[in-house]
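Incident log, structure service

09:12 report received: a user says their structure output differs between two submissions of the same chain.
09:20 pulled the input from the user's history:
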Amino acid sequence: MVLEKLFELAAPYLERNDFGVEHTRRVFDIARQNFAIPSKIEEFTLSTIILHDIGGSTIREQYQNGPKIAREILHQTGYGEKFIQEVCEIIKTHHEHLENPSLSFRILYDSDRLVMFSPEEFPHYDTRQGFNWNAVINSMYAEHAKDLARIMLAERKNSLHEKERMLSYDI
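09:34 re-ran on a clean worker, output below:
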């Protein structure tokens, strides 16, 4: 399958990021499980998700290096120039909240925000002083993504409170 080949080729680059290739797999799974991706754009959307963080660990590196690396990988897997150009355009702006983006962009953006609420990534963000979970939720495009984020946030907060409560007992 072409998408698995993309994962394989992208993995060495993705491992340079804070959460590694596992982050990308989580974003990929969130998109597939929570969004009705039309079959006409499914391969494009999922390819973009696989390659969205490929340029490095910072947004600047991803925007500067990501399109070039993605272009090389997509050429290796036989994609055409129009497909490659459109993937690269999304990679160059995937952290920005655009006014009227494509459905593929919105799915990537929302999935990349939802992953922040995952058990694996939540502690990283929640320990940042002044981190605003409501701003993350409000930035999402799809209402069902916002609803899911609120549920996930409540679950994470409840889990943290339960751990703190358990630690406060002298056992």
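09:41 both user submissions now match this output. Likely a transient worker issue. Closing.
09:42 reviewer note: The two ends are 52 Å apart (CA to CA). The chain has one domain: 2-168.
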